[in-house]
């Protein structure tokens, strides 16, 4: 390069900006939509022994919560055009809801919490109960 | 014999090839790019060139010169010795890379390179900002002790890194007999995959013979690689990418209840925990084998659809 650190840095940043812009104009800025099928596919890879019995799909398609009949849950979430997941035992994580929006605390450096929007407050309250460790089959009339 | 600093010289070629790969992706549909992921990788690459200037590069070179001063042999600086040095350093790279996957202290630096869920030429540039000094002390200093000049060691390592740039692509398929000896895109796709059957395989830098020799070679088959890490971090912030595992280690060590736990968190395999509640690669592979066996015996898929 030029031997001048500041100039080298500036040239590099401009180069990066140009590549990023080109990728943007080529259509590379994409967001994955979480559907039940997509969440199932992700879990099949990430957690092959996790057998979901029920799913809550975020109304905006940004995440999905799955529960198994064995006291475990997963949350699948979009990260750019890919999905990622976290698995936890029900009752293990702090879970709350504000209206229809469910929030699960992860306490990670990168991800403090993840959220999932149910279609209404009643559904959210039911799922919060499930994630806090209540029996998954006691649906309280929520479908 | 002069040893030029070849990485900065290669940067224009890196940029051009990334551009070609992006266009090829757009117009052929092969490979994949995501803008924020590519931006994070490129920033990590830039940071990896800047970070050593804060002292790491100088300390690393000082370690190599100190070892060279105590050398067992005085080797001539000839072209054939550069070739020999490249091969020996490639073997050094294999073991450094293997340990970087098998021991958490080293993984904390190397995880950066694996943190993308994409596999393209920008991923090659997603490099660590930490981890220069201990690697030099443990893995490179012995080569200086043998009599290889420090500048020659730096040069062949850069050559090795340069070789590894082009193998980070999905554009190139299988390469026939070339794959018997050399690391290729196919071999390295396996290395970046999180599919249990592909975990902890193909550590080679340039020569794949080391994996064949030490039993870590796994060929790419019809199962499509799923890139990233076992627990994908889920952010594009370069500072989080650079330091997340170091901070996770610190938190674990602070919570440790004994020296055994401290050493396990620091130097155990990534995913080690005192109660086995987290998963190491070995545990993931075992779970995969078990789930696969159960699926075979049930005659259906391993994961059941939602009711």
Q: Give me the strand/helix succession of chain B.
A: HHHHHHHHHHHHHH
Task: Average the pLDDT over all residues of chain B and give the rounded result.
Answer: 92
Low-confidence segments of chain A = 138-143
Total strands of chain B:
0
Work out the radius of gyration of chain A: 20 Å
Class by helix and strand content of chain A? alpha+beta
Which regions of chain B contain 5 or more consecutive residues with pLDDT less than 50?
300-307
Shape of chain A: elongated
Per the principal axes of the C-alpha atoms, what is the gross shape of chain B?
A: globular
* Quaternary status: heterodimer
Give the neighbour order of strands across the main sheet of chain A.
1-2-3-4
Largest sheet of chain B: none
Structure write-up:
The complex is a heterodimer of chains A (143) and B (307). Chain A has 143 residues and is of the alpha+beta class. Chain A is 30% helix and 29% strand. Mean pLDDT of chain A is 90; it is low at 138-143. Chain B is mainly alpha-helical. Chain B has helices spanning 6-28, 35-50, 56-69, 79-102, 104-114, 121-125, 132-146, 150-165, 178-181, 185-192, 209-214, 238-255, 259-267, 281-298. In chain B, helix 1 packs parallel to helix 8, helix 4 crosses helix 8 (150-165) and helix 5 runs antiparallel to helix 12. The longest helix of chain B is centred in the first third of the chain and has 24 residues, at 79-102. Mean pLDDT of chain B is 92; it is low at 300-307. The chains are: A alpha+beta (143), B mainly alpha (307). At the A-B interface, helix 1, helix 2, strand 1 and strand 4 of A face helix 1, helix 2, helix 12 and helix 14 of B.
Quickly describe the structure.
Chain A is α+β, with helices and mostly antiparallel strands and 143 residues long. In chain A, 30% of the residues lie in helices and 29% in strands.
Characteristics:
heterodimer, A: 143 residues, alpha+beta, four-stranded antiparallel sheet, 29% strand, B: 307 residues, mainly alpha
């Amino acid at each position: 390069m030029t031997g001048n650190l500041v100039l080298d840095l500036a040239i590099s940043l401009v180069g990066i900006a140009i590549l990023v812009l080109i990728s943007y104009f080529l259509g590379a800025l994409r967001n994955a939509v979480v559907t039940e099928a997509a969440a199932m596919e992700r879990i099949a890879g990430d957690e092959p022994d996790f057998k979901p019995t029920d799913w809550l799909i975020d109304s905006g398609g940004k995440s999905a919560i799955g529960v198994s009949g064995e006291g475990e849950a997963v949350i699948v979430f979009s990260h750019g055009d890919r999905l990622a997941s976290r698995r936890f035992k029900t009752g293990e994580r702090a879970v709350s809801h504000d209206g229809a929006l469910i929030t699960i605390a992860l306490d990670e450096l990168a991800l403090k919490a993840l959220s999932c929007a149910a279609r209404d407050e009643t559904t959210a309250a039911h799922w919060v109960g499930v994630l806090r460790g209540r029996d998954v089959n006691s649906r309280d009339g929520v479908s | 014999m002069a040893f030029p600093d070849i990485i900065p010289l290669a940067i224009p070629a890196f940029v051009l090839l990334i551009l070609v790969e992006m266009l090829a992706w757009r117009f052929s549909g092969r490979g994949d790019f995501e803008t924020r992921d590519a931006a994070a990788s490129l920033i990590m690459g830039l940071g990896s060139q800047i970070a050593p200037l804060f002292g790491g590069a100088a300390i690393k070179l000082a370690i190599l010169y100190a070892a060279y001063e105590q050398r067992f042999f005085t080797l001539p600086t000839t072209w054939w010795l550069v070739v020999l040095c490249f091969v020996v350093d490639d073997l050094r790279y294999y073991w450094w890379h293997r340990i970087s996957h098998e021991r958490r202290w080293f993984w904390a630096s190397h995880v950066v390179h694996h943190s993308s869920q994409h596999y393209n030429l920008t991923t090659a540039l997603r490099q660590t900002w930490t981890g220069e000094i201990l690697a030099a002390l443990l893995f490179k200093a012995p080569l200086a002790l043998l009599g290889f000049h420090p500048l020659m060691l730096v040069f062949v390592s850069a050559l090795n890194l340069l070789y590894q740039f082009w193998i980070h692509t999905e554009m190139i398929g299988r390469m026939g007999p070339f794959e018997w000896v050399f690391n290729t895109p196919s071999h390295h796709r396996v290395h970046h995959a999180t599919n249990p059957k592909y975990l902890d395989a193909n550590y080679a830098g340039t020569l794949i013979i080391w994996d064949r020799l030490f039993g870590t070679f796994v060929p790419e088959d019809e199962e499509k690689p799923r890139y990233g890490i076992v627990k994908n971090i889920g952010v594009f912030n370069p500072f989080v990418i650079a330091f997340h595992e170091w901070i996770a280690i610190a938190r674990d060590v602070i919570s440790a209840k004994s020296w055994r736990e401290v050493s396990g968190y620091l130097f155990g395999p990534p995913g080690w925990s005192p109660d086995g509640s987290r998963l190491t690669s070995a545990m993931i592979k075992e779970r995969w084998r078990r789930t696969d066996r159960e699926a075979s015996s049930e005659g259906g898929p391993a994961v059941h659809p939602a009711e």
